[in-house]
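> example.struct
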């Protein structure tokens, strides 16, 4: 049965025509789902009883269930959500002074195999469908509604478990649904997709006509080090990734963000900073330095505050715009994949 939350508007319009309805019926359904927040077809009182029965036969309206909820002292909420088939994914609400941002997972598990990340420990089981991506936002919106402050999700980052460009078509439908004025109406400039670096998809994304943001998980300034940290680099070395970024920038007219996780004594040296400057020269991107969330699953250590700021200082003095990412949920299972991995361990005990 098709979940209506996964239907991009133009596709829903075509489907309504196939069912003998006018295209406007899709907009009517979107209004009930996203504006009036209906949770059943019986609430859709301006749709005939006979067609409501057709809708019940062919469609469903459901969102993931909360399996585990962790609340940080800084207000961050991390959720482990259970999908219809029993699979579980992580979703995180981060509160900024400019709005509420949600970090969305795009796959159940991950096959990218980054050596510092908990997400890949259990491997990829499957990619998420559009309604499972949208459902993560709706669950958080419901939590915000319960707080009674009149707030909602304003920003979305597809940076959770999984490689979004390994689930390209479903992620594109998701973006169009949450960006649609009749959908969740989240501004394109408030949506960011993060990729480990699949060159063909980076170029394709630049041709989508979207004004969303693109982030590249870089984490190393040369192929030897990046291949040791991220096995995807063996298939797509930095030269291919940077070339694709230049093509993306030309097509999309948008700059990228380079995500750079700082690991003590590994990629946080002065030499690495200089290499990074030379690597991204000729692109319009800026660097987001990320303090590492340590876990007992890996031997990596987070760089000290002094090393982080020294690295930042080298970039800035050489004309590279850079920032240090604000940390959230440091007192809960903050790192991507940690909560799901812990839940899996508990199931096996």
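> example.seq
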């Amino acid at each position: 049965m098709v979940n209506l939350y996964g239907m991009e508007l133009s596709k829903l319009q075509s489907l309504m025509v196939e069912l003998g309805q006018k295209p406007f019926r899709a907009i009517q359904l979107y209004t009930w789902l996203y504006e009036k927040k209906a949770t059943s077809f019986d609430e859709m009182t301006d749709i005939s009883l006979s067609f409501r029965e057709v809708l019940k036969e062919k469609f469903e309206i459901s969102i993931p269930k909360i399996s585990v909820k962790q609340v940080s002292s800084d207000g961050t909420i991390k959720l482990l959500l259970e999908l219809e088939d029993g699979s579980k994914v992580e979703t995180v609400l981060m509160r900024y002074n400019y709005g509420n941002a949600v970090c969305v997972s795009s796959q159940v598990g991950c096959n990218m195999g980054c050596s510092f990340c908990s997400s890949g420990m259990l491997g990829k089981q499957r990619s998420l469908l559009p309604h499972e991506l949208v459902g993560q936002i709706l669950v958080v919106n419901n939590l915000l509604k319960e707080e009674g402050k009149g707030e909602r999700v304003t920003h979305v980052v597809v940076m959770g478990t999984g490689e979004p460009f390994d689930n390209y078509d479903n992620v594109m439908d998701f973006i169009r649904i949450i960006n649609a004025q009749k959908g969740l109406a989240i501004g394109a400039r408030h949506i960011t997709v993060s990729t480990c670096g699949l060159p063909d998809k980076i170029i394709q994304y630049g041709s989508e006509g979207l004004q969303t943001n693109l982030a590249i998980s870089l984490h190393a300034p040369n192929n030897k080090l990046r291949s040791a940290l991220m096995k995807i680099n063996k298939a797509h070395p930095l030269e291919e990734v940077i070339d694709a970024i230049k093509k993306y920038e030309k097509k999309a007219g948008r700059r990228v963000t380079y995500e750079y996780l700082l690991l003590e004594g590994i990629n946080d040296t002065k030499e690495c900073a200089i290499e990074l400057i030379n690597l991204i020269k000729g692109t319009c991107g800026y660097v987001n330095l990320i303090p590492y969330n340590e876990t007992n699953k890996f031997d990596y250590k987070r760089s000290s505050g002094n090393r982080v700021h020294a690295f930042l200082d080298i970039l800035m003095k050489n004309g590279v715009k850079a920032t240090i990412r604000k940390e959230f949920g440091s007192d809960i299972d903050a790192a991507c994949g940690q909560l799901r991995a812990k839940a899996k361990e508990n199931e096996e005990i």
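> remarks
The first helix runs from residue 9 to 18.
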